[in-house]
Design a protein that fits this description.
There is one protein chain. Helices cover 79% and strands 0% of the residues. The N and C termini lie close together (11 Å). By secondary structure, the chain is mainly alpha-helical. Helix 3 runs antiparallel to helix 4 (69-92), helix 3 crosses helix 6 (124-133) and helix 3 packs antiparallel against helix 7.
Length: 205
């Protein structure tokens, strides 16, 4: 995979990870309720769930491209429509939204279990990855290139939420995020709409 294409993958994975939603709320709750360690554990196990979906998507997309190109195109457009819906939803979100989270008593084992379940229990991730990874998967893609895509998605997701968990141990971070959450929603909404348009236009070169 060319470095420039990989950087595009990093950018869109980061955008997806940073979008406010149930995953962010999960890390917030466990960090506020149990401290840094449960928050980090929740982040890492969430990344494992994301990696599992990314793996399924990469292999499934490769098969669809080769055997059913028309079906692949239809699914890709469905994924683009989902991205657009997420973008519109983010633009219409209120000031707090997913950043409004309270702490709860928690342990590392609870954080690990819930981190994995939030990722695996969200089948919308499949649609997100179909739209996202359709820009990077090709019929002749090597096993190493597929592994790079999956690892990139896992590392970006885990790295972002670990950063959130570590940052929240500083009392000033959460109020700062909450006071600017409407801008976070707007920025991610615009980026999601732009990505949806890019998926419709065609794969990245």
């Amino acid at each position: 995979m060319p470095f420039s294409l990989w950087m595009s993958l990093v950018a869109v994975c980061a955008m997806g990870a940073m979008s406010p939603g149930p995953s962010l709320a999960l890390v917030l709750r466990h960090t506020l309720g149990g401290g840094r360690a449960p928050g980090v554990v929740a982040a890492l196990f969430h990344a494992l769930g994301v990696g599992f979906y990314a793996l399924l998507t990469v292999w499934g997309l490769g098969a669809l491209i080769v055997r059913y190109p028309t079906l692949f195109q239809a699914i890709t457009w469905a994924g683009a429509a989902y991205l657009a819906w997420l973008g519109i939803k983010a633009l219409r979100a209120g000031r707090a939204g997913a950043l409004e989270a309270t702490g709860m008593a928690t342990t590392r084992s609870q954080a690990a279990r819930e981190g994995m379940l939030v990722a695996l229990g969200n089948p919308k991730l499949i649609l997100f990855f179909i739209a996202l990874l359709s820009q990077f998967v090709t019929p002749d893609m090597s096993l190493a290139a597929k592994a790079i895509i999956v690892l990139t998605a896992m590392i970006i997701d885990g790295g972002w939420y670990v950063l959130v968990a570590v940052s929240l141990t500083h009392s000033r971070v959460l109020p700062w995020l909450q006071s600017r959450s409407h801008w976070i929603h707007r920025i991610t909404g615009v980026m999601l709409l732009a990505l949806a348009l890019r998926v419709v236009v065609g794969p990245l070169g």
